[in-house]
Design a protein that fits this description.
By secondary structure, this protein is an alpha/beta fold. 48% of the residues lie in helices and 13% in strands. It has helices at 4-12, 26-29, 62-69, 84-95, 112-122, 126-129, 134-148, 157-167, 178-186, 190-202, 207-219, 223-229, 238-255, 278-284; strands at residues 34-39, 42-49, 73-79, 172-177, 263-268, 288-291. A six-stranded mixed sheet has the order 4-3-5-2-1-6, with helices on both faces. Strand 1 and strand 2 (42-49) form a beta hairpin. The chain starts with a helix and ends with a strand.
């Protein structure tokens, strides 16, 4: 794998770089992608998101505001993501197992110095991390780079969208549950989980450049770049591409026609790029797809 951990986190969490505290020149570079979809009387909007942002990123537009105002409710990837305590409880339940090997024993001797350095930088103790399965330990280690880059879930797209819809008295739901989302990782084979762990260690060195590339692609609505630079990275890894991307796209494409009213659907932007993306699956079902931003 070339950079699977960064790609996986990009697909499931779709992180954004915090290289600069300056406001992003959105007006000069475009805006995040937004589509209007219609089929059999159902009208909806589909918006590609990034789940973690630095401060001062200017991503909202008048077109986006109009689409939200015209929608009956918000539909996120997973329902309950804003309940941090509940999500953490689910994460711990699925991610922890008894009698696991120490974390340093799950990686090659050559990777152990980098692992120790990463834990030291994040103030993480091996005894605590060793209680977690390798997939969960990988996600926890990723928070070190997020912190160093100034990333915050509170600045993400979903909290802002949720606040807007709830302030308008509109419902917020999900295409899946938090349990289903974490279970995707929990079901990965042990060998794949260990590769994620190793890559979370090694790729921490290049996180700034990778997140920066992702920010530019997302903020400009460049779905071709997202498909080329991030989605394509999973193509040679069917054990990851299936459960984390294409299988979810198919499940969501089956659920969207059942949504009532005129929903505003917000999912990670990588789900809307590349082969068998969510929009292409909906188009095959008879949906008319029109990009409006």
């Amino acid at each position: 794998m070339q950079k699977p951990f960064l790609t996986v986190i990009g697909l499931v969490l779709l992180l954004l770089n915090a290289c600069s505290g300056e406001r992003s020149p959105k007006d000069e570079r475009g805006a995040p992608a937004l589509w209007k979809i219609e089929n059999k009387g159902q009208k909806a909007f589909v918006f590609g998101t990034i789940h973690v942002l630095p401060e001062n990123v200017d991503w909202q537009t008048p077109i986006l505001a109009e689409a939200m105002a015209a929608s009956d409710g918000l539909v996120l990837e997973a329902e309950g993501l804003d309940d941090d305590a509940a999500a953490r409880k689910i994460f711990n339940r699925l991610g922890q197992s008894p009698n696991l090997p120490r974390l340093t024993q799950r990686v090659a001797a050559s990777d152990r110095p980098a692992l120790s350095a990463l834990m030291d930088r994040g103030g993480l103790k091996e005894a605590d991390l060793s209680r977690y399965e390798s997939w969960a330990a990988s996600l926890l280690l990723s928070t070190v780079a997020q912190s160093e880059l100034g990333l915050s879930g509170a600045q993400g797209v979903e909290p802002s969208l949720t606040a807007t819809f709830r302030a308008a008295g509109k419902p917020v739901s999900g295409l899946e549950t938090v349990t289903e989302q974490f279970s995707l990782f929990d079901r990965l084979p042990d060998a794949v989980q260990q590769r994620l762990l190793v890559d979370s260690i090694n790729d921490a060195k290049d996180s700034r450049a990778e997140y920066g590339k992702m920010m530019r692609a997302w903020l400009t609505g460049d779905t071709k770049a997202i498909a080329r630079d991030f989605v394509a990275e999973l193509a040679p890894e069917p054990e990851l591409a299936g459960p984390l991307l294409t299988d979810r796209n198919r499940a969501w494409a089956a659920r969207i026609p059942q949504l009532k009213g005129s929903p505003f659907i917000a999912v990670g932007a990588a789900h809307l790029a590349g082969p068998d993306n969510l929009l292409s699956l909906l188009q095959r079902q008879g949906y008319t797809i029109k990009r409006i931003q």
